[in-house]
UniProtKB/TrEMBL annotation:
Keyword Iron: no
Subunit structure: Homodecamer. Pentamer of dimers that assemble into a ring structure.
Descriptive protein name: Peroxiredoxin
One term of GO molecular function: thioredoxin-dependent peroxiredoxin activity
A Pfam family per the record: 1-cysPrx_C
Binding positions for substrate per the UniProt entry: R127
Species of origin: Flavihumibacter fluminis
Group of enzyme by EC: oxidoreductase
Length: 214
């Protein structure tokens, strides 16, 4: 009987693994230590949607570096296919995928992270995105099917929302983008509520108050 692995959930420690990648062998926990990591899977090399997505990540290299974030791609392809694809895209478009791409030919990492969703495909990983914080905790997960590419602006927004929330101990409202007001945690006592009423917070109701970060 096949063993069923529980996929990681938000708040879990990221499952560790060692993998062959396009930049050499990597121990995930070492790669993650001290930086945020976005681990993302794609269904297959040499496919059109995947090429647009991987190029999108590559073009945001400076953004992710500025925000202490490393990238790691993954698909159930061989290291030779990965290398040939990276080279082909570079020769055609000038875009180089410098981040490591895991050659998950035995599907071990895909299974560990719940990237194999048999109702969608038995052999290809879906388009998953896992954002890990510098302590190695899973903080955000997205899953997209094979036929719909992800949204780079949303991935970047979500990363900044997590980092800003951690830094300022606040929550982010619908569609929050940097520069906009953030949500202040609701008061936990009647006294704190009375204090809040005297504050200059933008208050919709006692439990929904916003402030600027600058
Ligand atoms: C694509 O990247 O274009 C793709 C890959 C697998 C299935 C469907 C589309």
């Amino acid at each position: 009987m096949e063993q069923i692995t529980l996929m990681p959930r938000i708040g879990d420690m990221a499952p560790d693994f060692e993998a062959v990648t396009t930049t050499g062998k990597i121990q995930f926990s070492d790669y993650n230590r001290g930086s945020w990591v976005i681990l993302f899977s794609h269904p297959a090399d040499f496919t059109p949607v995947c090429t647009t997505e991987m190029s999108g990540f590559a073009l945001e290299k400076e953004f992710f570096a500025q925000h202490n974030t490393k990238l790691m791609g993954l698909s159930i392809d061989s290291i030779h296919a990965h290398i040939a694809w990276v080279n082909a895209v570079y020769e055609k478009t000038g875009v180089l995928f410098e981040f490591p791409i895991v050659a998950d030919i035995d599907m071990s990492v895909s299974k560990l992270y719940g990237m194999l969703q048999p109702g969608e495909s038995e052999t290809a990983a879906v388009r998953a995105v896992f954002i890990m914080d510098p302590e190695g905790k899973v903080r955000l997960i997205m899953y997209y099917p094979l036929n719909v590419g992800r949204n780079m602006e949303e991935i970047k927004r979500a990363l900044l929302a997590l980092q800003t929330s951690d830094q300022h101990k606040c929550a982010m409202p619908l569609n929050w983008t940097p520069g906009e007001k953030v949500i202040v945690p609701a008061p936990k006592t009647v006294e704190a509520l009375q204090e809040r009423k005297k504050s200059d917070l933008e208050m919709v109701d006692w439990y929904l108050a916003k402030r600027s970060l600058n």
